[in-house]
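Q: Convert this sequence to structure tokens.
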Amino acid sequence: MNVNGIKMVGIDQSIPIEIRERVAFNKDVDAALNVLKENGLDEAIILSTCHRSEIYFFSESKSFEDIKNFYIKYFNLDDEFRKYFCCISGLEAVEHIFRVASGLESMVLGEDQILGQVKESLMNSQVNGISGKILNKLFMDAISMGKKVRTETGLKNYSSSISHIAIKFVENVFEDLKGKNAFVIGTGEMGKIAIRGLILKGANVSVSNRTYSKVQKLKSEMPDIEIVPYSDKYEQIAKSDIVISATNAPHYTISYDKFYNVYNGKKICMVDIALPRDIDPKIGRIHGVKLYSIDDLKRTAEENRKKQLNAIKNAEEIVLKGVNEFNTWFKTIKVEPHIKKITIYSDEICDMEFDRLVNKLEKMTDKDKENIKKSLKRVAEKMANVMIKHLKDDALVMDEISFCIDGSEVKT
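A:
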């Protein structure tokens, strides 16, 4: 078993949004995982966010090309799309998921949402029965790494969500948001953060969602919002100064023609923080409309990143230490069955010697027998632990290990 069997194929925020949105799994993760399982993968995890679409898998037989082929077929893509995929394996893939979970690969450095998304991706894989020992360990370590980096480096003190940056862009357009009419479409995590931010800035916030009950529930949490039926969203857009859209729809939820029919020519700022995009980009060409997408928010994110160089350095050191620890664990996996054999053998020897001693010493009390057995167990465990330590140490530096137990040679 080789650590290079850990592989990742995917695309991230370095690829333009019009490409990324074509491979966004969104609500199709369960179906995609089942297709991967049918294709012969025993361990696979899909991490799909607004910035990345990545498939992690552990296999010594499946190749990068197999997963590229899956993407091409699943999303009905042209073969030309292959050039956009990033393919990494081994410790490079381990370091990558650790960096992702830590927020080091996020557009907004240190943001918390990605950590929840990594947890959810692991859970989805486990529920669908396609995450085994290797990826379970890898992603659990990544989650722990994400928490550790945020608490020990101060990175979380700088973090800001995409939604917060979106509001900063709106402020650049209007300066003061107090009294402005804001319309948020979508009640997911990013939508909620945007709503809270707009309320704090003094805006009048209206909210719409395709599922009406979700908006009603949100109203009970945030009584300051006004509910707008989803079917009335274009009429509400016409009344709004600010529109922020953050849905999981697989297509444009605000089309050019319908928007143009209701637009009255007044100044409006629209921010599309969805992937795939919610707002037809042609709307941004209309005079009076300021339209920003996720990729437009990168400038602010990069400015924030420059202020955090020291925290980044500390975070990267923690990540590299974690990669080394994972590598140590992986190398010792191959000797685990033999460690079990050593433990069983030491227990058998202990029991055998105890029985022989008891048969020779007839006048022992039950308490004496108990103490003798405990002493024999301790001696056996100490001797076994010495052998186990040497076995693990050898596993770190040797590809093949041989040792003798019970008179027979064992190779690994």
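The CA atoms of residues 182 and 205 lie 5 Å apart.
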